[in-house]
Design a protein that fits this description.
The structure holds 2 protein chains of 2 kinds.
Chain A (H helix, E strand, L loop, with lengths): L3 H11 L4 H11 L4 H16 L1 E3 L19 H10 L6 H15 L14 H8 L5 H16 L21
Chain B lengths: L10 E5 L8 H7 L11 E5 L5 H6 L2 H9 L4 H5 L20 H4 L1 E6 L5 E6 L18 H14 L5 E5 L6 H9 L2 E6 L3 H16 L8 E6 L9 H9 L36 H16 L6
Parallel strand pairs in B: 1-5, 1-6, 2-4, 2-5, 6-7
Antiparallel strand pairs in B: 3-4
Helix pairs in contact in B: 6-7
The chains are: A mainly alpha, B alpha/beta.
Chain lengths: 167, 293
């Protein structure tokens, strides 16, 4: 894969820039702050097909978003299955498989392979399940182990009768 | 104004939970603006008589102009001549076009069509909570549904910010919706509000095509989600598989401030990029349930 800088060279070459003009351009860029360049670039980006507003509030975009905003669903599912469980890998996989078949009786999933490990199977499941469904199955597994239903006095969300499920 | 005819049917998303204070208006005001980053045109409809969504996105002076020109959601329900507190005229004619009454908040540079529009709210909508006989309201419901149908031609997504009650307005919104976005705060009442909404949707025969449910956890101040709450919700057979992995993060940028209107992420302020990244991630996750792959 080409780096951004290599792509930049290709763009310059494609636009017919001579090495001398590239040198001039770099010299001009070096006189501006990165923030100023980002703001000017964004203006051009908007003209190219972006969004306009009454106030025309341009804002500067930082390259790297904060890391904690995105949930790594696979890691979270693996941690729910492996964390705090005394079960062996084989036992964990069997129980997850049981929950899968019970939750989605009409769907087909790849069979778990204890030798390949839990992480590998979770990755393969994520091709069949949506992120929300994967977390649902992993949380059901975790709850089953934690016996969370012991507090019968509390108000909880009702569970559907499995025999009434249509999908 | 040029009309932009869409090949794919627009999604109509009602933002609703029977519990109040779960962030419906905050989510409507700030999250859907990020659909623009994915080249989707959005119409926001303020369907709550308290019209907080309108107050969040436009100034009082701007709103007065819309109100004086009768360009609010109330004009969708009834023509100006029909305004009477306890009655609704039967033959009211067609509703206005969305493009004629919307406040254009953002537009596409390429053709000046609306990227983000707002149909402003109106306190007069309170009348629909006062009329006892639901049959009297049928003409208003018909007008609203016609309005949504024609609006679907111009936008990719229509977001209806609902009020938290099982009122006539909620029924109108649910009948028009393809999807329901249900915000839940990490507290038990908010979660139990999910069930009430589900029962309401299931129990109303006039909602023939039941909207697809999507649950969004609104983490609230402190941004901490009780693990017990999350495991109960995610393990639930009905709501777990439709709960988005990423939670809507609380930020002081989202709070209502005097003299400040507009989308939170258009402000130049510290931590705005964290908020943008959170919203972009939620929109990415929404694309699946909305059928945008």
């Amino acid at each position: 894969m080409k780096s951004d800088l290599q792509n930049f060279y290709l763009l310059m070459a494609g636009a017919g820039f001579t090495p001398y003009r590239v040198e001039e351009l770099i010299s001009e860029i070096s006189k501006k702050t990165p923030q100023k360049i980002a703001i000017e670039y964004e203006k051009h980006l908007k003209q190219w097909g972006g969004v306009g507003s009454v106030s025309d509030n341009y804002y500067r975009k930082k390259q790297a978003p904060s890391q904690d905003v995105k949930v790594d669903v696979q890691s979270k599912a693996i941690s729910l299955i492996m964390g705090g469980s005394d079960l062996t890998v084989r036992e964990s996989l069997e129980l997850v498989n049981l929950i899968l078949l019970e939750t989605f009786p009409d769907r087909k999933f790849s069979a778990p392979n204890p030798k390949a490990g839990i992480a590998s199977w979770v990755r393969s499941l994520s091709r069949t399940l949506t992120d929300s469904e994967l977390l649902h199955v992993a949380t059901k597994f975790r709850n089953k182990l934690a016996h969370m239903s012991s507090n019968q006095q509390d108000w909880v969300l009702k569970e559907e009768d499995a025999s009434n499920k249509t999908d | 104004m040029d009309s932009k005819i869409k090949k794919e049917s627009a999604r109509v998303v009602s933002v609703l939970n029977m519990k109040g204070g779960v962030g419906k208006t905050t989510i409507s005001a700030h999250l859907f603006r990020h659909m623009l980053n994915f080249s989707k045109s959005v119409l926001l409809i303020d369907f709550d008589p308290q019209f907080n969504l309108t107050q969040a996105l436009m100034t009082q002076r701007e709103y007065k102009k819309f109100r004086d020109e009768d360009k609010t959601i109330f004009s969708v329900m009834e023509p100006p001549s029909a305004s009477s507190l306890f009655s609704v005229t039967k033959n009211m004619g067609p509703p206005p076009l969305a493009v004629d009454i919307e406040k254009q908040l953002r537009w596409w540079v390429r053709d000046k069509t609306t990227a983000l529009g707002l149909v402003t709210g109106d306190f007069r909508m309170t009348k629909y909570t006062l009329v006892d006989n639901p049959k009297i309201l049928l003409p208003a419901q018909k007008r609203f549904l016609e309005f949504i149908e024609q609006a679907k031609e111009h936008y990719d997504l229509i977001c209806i910010d609902c009020n938290p009650s099982s009122s006539f307005m909620t029924l109108c919104a649910l009948t028009a919706s393809t999807h329901l976005l249900i915000p839940v705060r990490p507290d038990r009442y908010s979660m139990l509000g999910l069930e009430m909404l589900d029962e309401f949707v299931a129990g109303v025969p006039s909602i023939v095509s039941k909207p697809k449910q999507i649950v969004l956890i609104n983490s609230g101040p402190g941004n901490s989600i009780d693990p017990g709450f999350e495991s109960t919700l995610r393990a639930n057979s009905k709501f777990g598989p439709v709960t988005l992995p990423t939670a809507f993060r609380f930020s002081s940028l989202l709070g209502a401030k005097e003299g400040k209107v507009g989308s939170a992420t258009d402000k130049k302020a510290p931590y705005v990029n964290t908020l943008k990244a959170n919203f972009d991630q939620i929109i990415t996750e929404l694309k699946g349930p909305l059928g945008w792959h």
